[in-house]
Amino acid sequence: MEDIKCCVVSCDKPLDAAYWEAQYEAKTTGWDLGKVSPPIQTYVDTVTDKNCSILIPGCGNSYEAEYLLEQGFTNSTVIDIAPTPVAVLKEKFKNNSNIQIILGDFFEHQGKYDLVLEQTFFCALPPTMRQKYVWKMHQLLADEGILAGLLFNRTFESGPPFGGSKEEYEKLFAAAFDFLKMEVSENSIAPRADSELFIELKKNNQVVVNLYEFEGITCSGCMETITEKLIAIDGILNVSMNSTFAEVLIVSKNEIAIQALQHVISYDEKYKIKKINP
Ligand SMILES: C[S@@+](CC[C@H](N)C(=O)[O-])C[C@H]1O[C@@H](n2cnc3c(N)ncnc32)[C@H](O)[C@@H]1O
């Protein structure tokens, strides 16, 4: 992709605050559109409640937040782990009480939002964190909350950005969210044309979404067997294991006792499951 270049820092480094800050310092920010993302602009134009609470995670220079302010939205929060873009935003929007600008980790952030806008944040995370993203997003959204924005519908040789597909996202978000929209975006910027999906996912507040540490799986065959055993438990609606088999996202109609989960996997004593606290 023309507009998305890999980093100056070796990509096998952890994608932590130091990594992202180095990109901003070196100005290797090929993802930065320099303007509001057109599909997000189109979406924001449909939002009628200007007082709804909105979060933009991994906001970078956040032209989306600027657009929200221009349109009269009064309750936006943006968060990024890298100090440079946060400092720029703090200066740009100083004395503006309609926006809260946070330097911090999305996964440690607490709050409740009516709307979360996704713009090249999901694809910037290591793919191992996708189940954690769904879990955290479910926690941060209010009961009728919406996650809207863009996800890549293509693969990349290396990342970030890390790609994905509609099929993968449907499995990942299943049961935790209702799918209002997941279709190829019509007005992506030219270099991303036909390679982004616009998503509008509504939090399913009738379910419990938990994340667990999982120990003992070494191959995808075992992962499939474990997944089948877990999904067969009464009340479980979706089971999604992360790509290193170290975390599993479970969506259920009600809280499932840890003993019930451990019981179905205990046919092999090396398998262990432990709930991660929010
Ligand atoms: C590819 S950039 C996208 C920035 C912005 N959304 C845009 O489109 O210009 C990904 C951003 O996510 C931020 N980021 C990565 N991991 C994060 C985390 N755990 N919490 C908050 N921000 C994070 C990075 O610092 C970076 O600004």
TrEMBL record:
One Pfam family per UniProt: TPMT
MF annotations from Gene Ontology: metal ion binding; S-adenosylmethionine-dependent methyltransferase activity
UniProt keyword annotations, A-Z: Methyltransferase, Phosphoprotein, S-adenosyl-L-methionine, Transferase
SUPFAM superfamilies for the chain: HMA, heavy metal-associated domain (SSF55008), S-adenosyl-L-methionine-dependent methyltransferases (SSF53335)
Database matches in InterPro entries: HMA_dom, HMA_dom_sf, SAM-dependent_MTases_sf, TPMT
Entries under Gene3D superfamilies matching the protein: 3.30.70.100, Vaccinia Virus protein VP39 (3.40.50.150)
Keyword S-adenosyl-L-methionine part of the UniProt annotation: yes
Domain of life according to the entry: Bacteria
Name of the molecule in the record: Methyltransferase domain-containing protein
Organism: Flavobacterium rhamnosiphilum
